[in-house]
Design goal:
This protein is α/β, with parallel strands linked by helices. The chain has four domains: 3-96, 2-Layer Sandwich (GMP Synthetase, Chain A, domain 3), CATH 3.30.300.180; 110-284, P-loop containing nucleotide triphosphate hydrolases (Rossmann fold, 3-Layer(aba) Sandwich), CATH 3.40.50; 289-327, no CATH class; 373-467, Chromosomal Replication Initiator Protein Dnaa, Chain: A, CATH 1.10.1750. It is built from 20 helices and ten strands. The strands form three sheets. A five-stranded parallel β-sheet has the order 7-8-9-6-10, with helices on both faces. Strands 1-2-3 form a three-stranded mixed β-sheet. Strands 4-5 form a two-stranded antiparallel sheet. α3 links the parallel β2 and β3. α7 (193-205) packs across α8 and α11 (289-303) crosses α12 (309-318). 34% of the residues are buried. The model is unreliable at 357-374 (pLDDT under 50). The chain binds adenosine-5'-diphosphate (ADP) and magnesium ion. The site of adenosine-5'-diphosphate has 15 residues, from α6 and α13.
């Protein structure tokens, strides 16, 4: 077997077990450079591939290689920047392993009533099993499990409330999916409140309110997401009340979500409020740190990507606004790493959060680096800080007094004093020949500000971590 065919067979084996996107990302433009005395020397196109292959792929690649040729005893890696698409040693992975788009199968549970409503499985990615529980959402999850098992028996209506991005839609759709799985004869309708409002408006215009009532007759489970949008819509409330009552009275399950509890919904229709209150009301809150970390780990596993534990801890610790925001940062990190081939670091993630999650509350996080790197110089410190804040170095040593420059400059002085233990005079001299009292004021300013500016604390943690300062 020639080297190209050998590599093709090995990568083919890896593809049987791993997600295509991941293998393509890390094996594109790689090649077997030599195979002698049982040692397979693999060429990698970029320096940073090296670490990644050694930590994540060396073991599995060797296993796959031994399946292809048991004579292979060892794999070594070598960076060869000449490797690229035009290089004759490289195989075209995209051509050999084309993306097989799954054929869209008709949803066999999909049913359509004469009145035109559709009952079907919802987004299959939402399940009750992949909803990670913590004390903040356990009750809601348990209530959903109960409803999924015994619809319309114990908790009816089930009313789930909580802030945005905390898993309400996930729970609602997962419960619907589960009910359908348990008994496909169900007729389940999921609608956003907006969808329902539009229907009522159409019916009013067509002067045919009976249409809506008939339409929902067949439904066995009605799921309404984000009911808060019904506030101030009197006609819709009235109509909803009728639909709700007729379903409820004929023993159908109703599941509702809202961003606030029933009594805060400002509904004109008081009867509706007491209807909501007659069932089970549960809330979802932001999960604790451990659960946030577990969610991130789970989502990485699901996407089959490896992200440094330290980076995940950093995200879990700092993103406290919603699970959606947590997922958002993770998704961005994954996308960045797939596009740019750069593994997320605490610094890159902190920067991403700064740019896109301005509203995310930052809390202090002390990152410890188990492998101390010494010899941090003022130059490398200046590099780290200017890179982090994306300001030109010349502006830092220059006279600019804009906030964009002042803060990074003060941070440099602060870190040079507190971490590198340089003298005030020396710092001043190196940073644009400034007076030692200016340096002293800057250091004091940052240390004062750190007491109540969590964003700054987060910035400094990220910088010191990246610069290898302790
Ligand atoms: P809401 O409807 O409350 O605004 P969503 O249900 O849309 O929030 O949740 C936002 C995202 O966070 C979804 O992708 C959801 O799967 C995910 N999510 C929320 N809570 C959890 C959890 N406890 N475990 C796993 N994923 C979660
Ligand atoms: Mg939602």
């Amino acid at each position: 077997m020639n080297l190209k065919d050998l590599w093709l067979a090995i990568v083919g084996k890896l593809l049987e077990e791993f997600e295509r996107a991941q293998i393509i990302t890390w094996f594109k433009n790689t090649a077997v450079l030599s195979f002698e005395d049982g040692v397979l020397n693999v060429g990698l196109p970029l320096p940073f591939f090296l670490n990644w292959h050694i930590t994540h792929f060396s073991k599995i690649t060797l296993e796959a290689a031994q399946k292809v040729d048991p004579k292979i005893k060892k794999i070594t890696y070598q960076v060869d920047i000449a490797l690229g698409e035009a290089d004759s040693r490289v195989i075209d992975l995209l051509k050999h392993f084309p993306d097989k788009k799954p054929r869209k199968l008709p949803n066999k549970n999909e049913k359509r009533s004469e009145e035109g409503i559709i009952s079907k499985m919802f987004n299959p990615k939402y399940t009750l099993e992949n909803f990670i529980t913590s004390p903040e959402n356990r009750l809601a999850h348990a209530a959903c499990q109960n409803v999924a098992k015994y619809p319309a028996e114990n908790y009816n209506p089930l009313f789930i409330y909580g802030g945005v991005g905390l898993g309400k839609t996930h729970l609602l759709q997962a419960t619907g999916n589960e009910i359908m799985r348990n008994d496909p004869s169900n007729f389940i309708v999921y609608t956003t409140t907006e969808g329902f409002v539009n229907e009522v408006v159409d019916a009013i215009q067509a002067r045919n309110m009976n249409h809506i009532r008939n339409k929902y007759r067949k439904v066995t489970v009605l799921i309404i997401d984000d009911i808060q949008f019904i506030a101030n819509k009197d006609r819709t409330q009235e109509e909803f009340f009728h639909t709700f009552n007729s379903l409820y009275e004929s023993g159908k399950q109703i599941i509702i979500s809202s961003d606030r509890p029933p009594h805060e919904l400002a509904l004109l229709n008081e009867r509706l409020v007491s209807r909501f209150q007659s069932g089970m009301i549960v809330d979802v809150q932001m999960p604790d740190y451990e659960t946030r970390l577990a969610i991130l780990q789970y989502k990485c596993q699901e996407a089959q990507v490896f992200i440094n534990q330290e980076v995940l801890e950093f995200i879990a610790f700092n993103v406290t606004s919603s699970v959606r925001a947590l997922e958002g940062i993770l998704k961005q990190s994954i996308a960045k790493y797939e596009l740019e081939h750069t593994a997320p670091t605490v610094k890159s993630v902190a920067k991403m959060m700064k740019q896109t999650q301005k509203e995310v509350k930052m809390i202090g996080f002390v990152v410890q680096d188990p492998a101390p790197r010494s010899a941090v110089t003022i130059d490398s410190l200046i590099d780290s800080v200017t890179e982090y804040f994306t300001v030109p170095k010349s502006d830092i040593v220059g006279d600019s007094r804009t906030r964009d420059c002042m803060v990074p400059r003060q941070v440099i002085m602060y870190l040079a004093k507190t971490k590198l233990h340089m003298s005030l005079a020396k710092i001043g001299q190196l940073i644009g020949n400034r007076n030692h009292t200016t340096v002293m004021h800057s250091v004091k300013r940052i240390s004062d500000q750190l007491k109540n500016d969590r964003q700054l604390l987060c910035d400094i943690n990220a910088i010191t971590k990246e610069a290898g300062i302790h």
